[in-house]
């Protein structure tokens, strides 16, 4: 019988290979997709669906017992393994708006949970050909090289990343006030456009912190583990850990966590 860590390592290797292969599918479709809106400003393309189909088929080939939670609603791919102790959480293309406009980055995000705990996280930034992987307890790797969060101690020296609201913009004023506080307190703010990559870039020390509301589990499942394994901290705006289903994300190098939390805390009732 294989021990748990060996199984997680094997799952990481499979996920890393699948993410790179899925990246090839996305690259093939780049610049030649038909875009549909599944909701206001919520885009989906054949590439999202093809990549998801590929990932589900391959995961079931390697791990037939594992359940899957994935973003796109593919009626021909119902799972039926809901009670399983292992579950994959998949975003086939994170950053579809970037993808459809030819703007980097966009990512493929795969997480494996065991008994509800994320144990493997893989994010592949396709345009930059960068693969971020982690197994719980085993550290963060970027293209196979060990990496860590930044050592920035103060907001004054910090570069922060965020996601602007774009679907339900009912809390826009409050968001803009928080953004204003963060702009005033820090070295600057960026909006790259793919939450999984925002988290990966906090994990490896490019950004010192990230905040956003309205995120779904597939946007953040893998990225949360990357940040934690890079030595950082991830909470909701109340400071509670493991915000995978919280629809609020605050991820930092740990050192600036409380200071950034104070600036975004007035958004603690915003989940959209
Ligand atoms: C989106 C991206 C974006 C974030 C959105 C997500 P999608 O994912 O991660 O950065 O601001 O909230 O929904 O829809 O491109 O997979
Ligand atoms: Ca996403
Ligand atoms: Ca997506």
UniProtKB/TrEMBL annotation:
Per UniProt, what is one GO molecular function of this protein?
A: inositol monophosphate 1-phosphatase activity
| Entry EC number(s) | 3.1.3.25
| Residues that bind Mg(2+) 2 | 93
Q: Which reaction does it catalyse?
A: a myo-inositol phosphate + H2O = myo-inositol + phosphate
Q: Which cofactor does it need?
A: Mg(2+)
Pfam families, per this entry? Inositol_P
Q: Decide whether keyword Repressor is in the record.
A: no
What keywords were assigned to this record?
Hydrolase, Magnesium, Metal-binding
The record's Gene Ontology biological-process terms are: inositol metabolic process; phosphatidylinositol phosphate biosynthetic process; signal transduction
As given in the record, the signal peptide range reads: none
Q: Where does Mg(2+) 1 bind?
A: 71, 91, 94, 219
Output the PROSITE patterns linked to this UniProt entry.
Answer: IMP_1, IMP_2
Domain of life, per the record?
Answer: Bacteria
State the similarity comment.
Belongs to the inositol monophosphatase superfamily.
Q: What is this protein called?
A: Inositol-1-monophosphatase
């Amino acid at each position: 019988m294989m021990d748990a860590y060996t199984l997680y390592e094997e799952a990481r290797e499979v996920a890393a290979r699948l993410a790179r292969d899925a990246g090839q599918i996305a690259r093939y479709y780049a610049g030649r997709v038909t875009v549909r809106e599944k909701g206001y400003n919520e885009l989906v393309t054949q590439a999202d669906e093809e990549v998801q189909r590929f990932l589900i088929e391959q995961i079931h080939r390697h791990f037939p017992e594992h359940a899957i939670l994935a973003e796109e609603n593919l009626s021909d791919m119902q799972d039926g393994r809901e009670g399983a102790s292992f579950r994959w959480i998949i975003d086939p293309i994170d950053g579809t708006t970037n993808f459809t406009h030819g703007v980097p980055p966009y990512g493929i995000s795969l997480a494996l949970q065991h008994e509800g705990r994320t144990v493997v996280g893989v994010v592949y930034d396709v345009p930059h050909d960068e693969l971020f992987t982690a197994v719980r307890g085993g550290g963060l790797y970027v293209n196979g090289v060990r990496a860590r969060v930044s050592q920035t101690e103060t907001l004054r020296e910090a570069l922060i990343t965020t996601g602007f609201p774009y679907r339900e913009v009912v809390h826009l004023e409050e968001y803009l006030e928080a953004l204003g506080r963060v702009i005033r307190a820090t070295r600057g703010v960026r909006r790259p456009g793919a939450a999984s990559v925002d988290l990966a870039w906090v994990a490896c020390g490019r950004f010192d912190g990230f905040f956003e509301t309205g995120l779904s589990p597939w946007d953040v499942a893998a990225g949360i583990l990357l940040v934690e394994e890079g030595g950082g901290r991830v909470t909701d705006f109340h400071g509670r850990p493991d915000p995978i289903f919280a629809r609020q994300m605050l991820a930092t190098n740990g050192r600036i966590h409380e200071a950034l939390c104070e600036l975004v805390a007035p958004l603690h009732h915003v989940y959209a």
